[in-house]
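Lab meeting prep.
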Amino acid sequence: MRDLKIAIIGCGNIGSSIANGLIADKDFKASNLTLTKRNLTSLESLKKAGVNLTSDNIEAVKNSNIIIIGVKPYMVKEVISEIREHIDNKKHTIISLATGFTTDALHDNLKTDVPIYRVMPNIAAEINESMTCVCHKFANEEQNNEWILNKIGKTLFIKEDLMEAATVLGACGIAYALRFIRGMIQGGIQIGFDAKTANAIVNQTVKGAAELLIKNGKHPEVEIDKVTTPKGYTIIGLNEMEHQGFSSSLIKGILASYNKIEK
């Protein structure tokens, strides 16, 4: 499976993140990766790593086994219409990154029972730390391409009716986390740190908090209780944040994004 050839059709930000994640793995051959885009200028750095660049989607499909569709949702039908006649359900597997485009919709447009994966990674794929949610159609264990996705982070198979929610919590969620980090850094500057030092402290603190939950497997409140002593500094700060709507505003933001996708 590691010798299979991969094409990323419409290699934008997420496609480039996946490409970088694959290239970073020493066991993956960059020459087995083909990237397509109308304007290839932004992909020149990847060409230096040994990948193949082309603006010809059909050429990319013919020379690949796994086809990752990375274009915007409104362009999916157009791309599928272009490559459909060159899809062989015995040779190819389709992996779609398009938000809101169901496996049934992909199947209806492809007009063949080719194995289909609907995938939602996030931009941390670039450093092999994506949380990637996946569902599939017409795929069996032999056609499971989880190994590709595991090269860009952690993979979780979920029910398709949760894919929109996964988009908000995982793909949009990384922006929410980054905005929280930004706010922490700004607060650090206000209480006396220079930007570089505040950035270093906050980044490691947030990384440590995430690792603590992952490795200990406990609810966040269990760890919070360890640092919230009676009449202490931490509980005063936490309560003030809650008085200002910290948790409720975050939840409202998540729901707003989800409602947007649902519409």
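Slide two material, second protein:
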Amino acid sequence: MVRVGRQRNARRIETIRKTAFYLTLLLVFIRCCQIHELIYYRFHINTYAVIVVGAPATLGLIISKSFIRPFRLPQAYCWLGFSLWMVITVPFSFWKGGSIQVVGDYWRTDAVMFLLIGGLTTTWEEFERLIEVLAISCLLCLVMIKAYGELDINGRTTLPFGALANSNDYAAHLLMLLPSVLWVALTSKSLLMRIITICVIGYGIFAVLSSGSRGALISVAIGTLYFLIMASRRQRLVAACLMAIMLFATMTVLPKAAVQRLLSFSRTEDASEEAMESSDIRKRVLEEGISRTLENPIFGLGPGNFSNFEGVSEAANWAPPHNSYITVASECGIPGFLLFVSGVVLSFRTMMRIGFKFRRKPEQSKIAQAAICMQLMMVMFCVAVAFLNFAYSFHFPFLVGTSIAMAYTSLGPRSPSRAHTRVRSLDGREGNAEMGYLSV
């Protein structure tokens, strides 16, 4: 009877976990495609979708005790430490009210992402569903850009609504999503699906570059180089040819003003004056960010307070640092910066180790391809936000959670490579081997 009761309880807990997992997928879809902001823009209805979906998902995470699972990897401790350090800095912030709002918003909707994704994704099939949701979100984002995108006076595509209205911001967001479409192209057995996904990637690159973001151009270049290094010989040849065609077509179709801005890296006769002014502002606030970090090395200025501090200074400049890493350093101090960077680096290292482990195993090609695409996702996004203000967005907790989920589902006890491994315990009973995936 005791054994039967335990089995029923285990099934009940698993049902709660699965429900919370699918709610998490819905939450990822909402956050990545920004559908709730489109609804508000079109119909002026605030759906509170992030809270409505996120709250029961978090409750399921707690009831199923899945929040414990992410802490088998060190990046979870780093990200929890960074999130808690943000709270600690509030009493020492330049403007406590502003920091309380930033920290409150972050903890309410963003910080939990690494626990939801890392804790609730327990099988490789579920991880594949996660990547597919990212790919669908990317497709919907591109549809929104096509349907609602507008050209500003500098020939840059912008959105008229939402948190990604800024050209630079939506470009960085797309760069995080596009590798999921690449994974579908690499793993699909259907030729038609591969053609469709390649076309989506091509339009995605066009949409990214049409933003006129030079940081996005640098990110695309570095991401392409990274993929060519990590991919197989056949993939390199195909990718190099396709990328050359895509870039040529993109530069041909883009408005002349956007192309001029993309190529304006130094002051020449053909350089965009607006782009050069933007570079001067970014250089100045970057120097100010480093200065503020050295002046307040422990607690910083407080989350969200760099612009406020600069605004009341003699320069009366309300501009943010335009660098996510300097934002963290100047507003959360060096301890917060180290925790932040450690979480990102450890997440990337996890994905690299998974890639190296499975790259020579043809029967596990989907895992190897996913590892490359997830690395590419981190490389391009982390380069892009070095020129933007994404420090407290959901993107970084999402990436940390994705690395944890990938490690657990590809190398853990319920992974495709170990799901059928059987061991006999000392008392003679058989069960799945709880293999230690942290040694990867």
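Talking points for slide two:
Confidence is low (pLDDT under 50) at residues 419-440.
Residues 72-107+121-392 form one domain.
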